[in-house]
Amino acid sequence: MLQDLDDAMTAVDGARCVQDLGEILHLTATKAGFESFSFLNGATVASTSESIIMTVSKDWQDTYFSEGFLDVDPCLMRALTSNSSFMWSDIELPPVVNGKVPGARRTMEAARDHGYVDGLVLPLHLVDTKGSPYNSFCSLFWKEDERLLPEVSRRYGHYLHMLAMLWEQKLQDLSPQLSTGMLGSISVLGNARSTKALSGRERDVLAWAAHGKTAGETALILGLSMETVNHHLGKAQKKLMAANKTHAVAIAINRGVISV
Fold this sequence. Notes:
Layout: H1 2-13, H2 18-31, E1 36-43, E2 51-54, H3 58-66, H4 74-79, E3 86-87, H5 103-113, E4 118-127, E5 133-142, H6 149-174, E6 181-183, E7 186-189, H7 193-196, H8 200-210, H9 215-222, H10 226-239, H11 245-254
Antiparallel strand pairs: 1-2, 1-5, 2-7, 3-4, 4-5, 6-7
Helix pairs in contact: 1-2, 1-6, 2-6, 8-10, 8-11, 9-10
InterPro entries: Sig_transdc_resp-reg_C-effctor, TF_LuxR_autoind-bd_dom, TF_LuxR_autoind-bd_dom_sf, Tscrpt_reg_LuxR_C, WH-like_DNA-bd_sf
GO biological process, one term: regulation of DNA-templated transcription
Protein name: Transcriptional regulator, LuxR family
């Protein structure tokens, strides 16, 4: 495995595009036993322009952003203030109080529901070409026996951390500004904050609008009243800062929030 990591660092240095980078990181992660990765670039507590490169399942992507987990992800919160790698299971989650499940706990429970039983987080604290500090982090998703991850983390965590640092630096060289889209099997979200606000229903009504359905037709398809459909369309327009429904659909398609 150490030779694989050494080969990966050499490959990162010679990568010619973001797709190459994504494929190198994914291959290296799977050789270490992980199922996939998610790399959040440029995160700060007040940031509104994080970009994400990922190979996690589409179902998990949909759940993560539609449920607004980006705002409450405990891995992200800890990564902002940590220099060392850590496992998801190292995080002490807040308790359920009076039947209310905190967002951090909901995030991790949802990940487990999607088969991600644990993961390894690699925090990165860097300085851009203008001298401004910024934070990124790589999360490696584990679907195997969770009892095996501590040993993998102990043996390879340091090397994976070094690889992530080199990977991030190469990413900045190749493409500091990312656009939403698919690069082979690699998903890229140019502005992660653009999707967090839309609920599942808001995405549903936008998707049907993208297929040319009127509010009345969408209401019949989804089993809702036309007033409810228009309510969701209005909220989606506002969140996307769109001038009208057509504009909202165009923005959503461009950002990868919906597909046609």
